[in-house]
Q: What sequence folds into this?
């Protein structure tokens, strides 16, 4: 139980375009989901906390207008990287909270050319 | 959440026990010790957690010192598939204050299992 999926697993996009990443809790409902970003050889950094039916809470230094988060249902949160640039290339990982614990998705590798 | 200190890297021979240490000297009474690992290009995987008693599951054992200021994750028979970055995190899962829910990752220990 407590499985989290992400789609797509990898994506390549051109600079200036937008990319949407989906995070789903497959066998539980999650009122809270988290989005992390991980650059090569670095640790995971929390970007934002997503709460179902309300606005996301962004960490300091993360642009909310660039990284749009929508948590419209108890099983789905989406992260949209708007006007992507090469420096946004990274590994994006979502996590869902369930029974006080966090369960992680497999990650999405974004490459912006 | 309390901070943790882990060695940046360790090697372990295949088939031997891997003992990964973690210092958390500022841990508070309600905080648990969690261990996750991240295999290259994958999401973090939960391993084990504990409060003060030693814990064991099918993946590993967790030994917490009596004063709770440090702990050791033990992989009893390391395999090549155990090569990963191991993260030790302390948190109170029930704390409802600001910034409480999420797991905060440090740099972890890169474990290399050698044939």
A:
């Amino acid at each position: 139980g407590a499985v989290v999926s992400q789609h797509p697993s990898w994506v390549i996009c051109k600079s200036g375009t937008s990319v949407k990443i989906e995070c789903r809790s497959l066998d539980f409902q999650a009122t809270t989901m988290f989005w992390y970003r991980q650059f090569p050889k670095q640790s995971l950094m929390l970007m934002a906390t997503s709460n179902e039916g309300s606005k996301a809470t962004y960490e300091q230094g993360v642009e909310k207008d660039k990284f749009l988060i929508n948590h419209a249902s108890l099983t789905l949160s989406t992260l949209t990287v708007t006007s992507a640039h090469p420096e946004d290339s990274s590994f994006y990982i979502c996590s869902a909270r369930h029974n006080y614990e966090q369960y992680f998705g497999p990650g999405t590798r974004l490459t912006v050319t | 959440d309390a901070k943790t200190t882990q060695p940046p890297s360790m090697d372990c021979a295949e088939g031997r026990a891997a003992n990964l240490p973690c210092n958390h000297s500022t841990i508070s009474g309600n905080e648990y010790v969690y261990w996750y690992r991240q295999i290259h290009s994958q999401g973090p995987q939960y391993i084990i957690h504990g409060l003060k008693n030693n814990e064991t599951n099918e993946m590993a054992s967790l030994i917490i010192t009596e004063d709770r200021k440090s702990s050791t994750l033990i992989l009893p028979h390391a395999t090549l598939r155990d090569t990963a970055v191991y993260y030790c995190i302390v948190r109170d899962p029930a704390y409802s204050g600001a910034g409480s829910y999420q797991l905060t990752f440090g740099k972890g220990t890169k474990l290399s299992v050698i044939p």
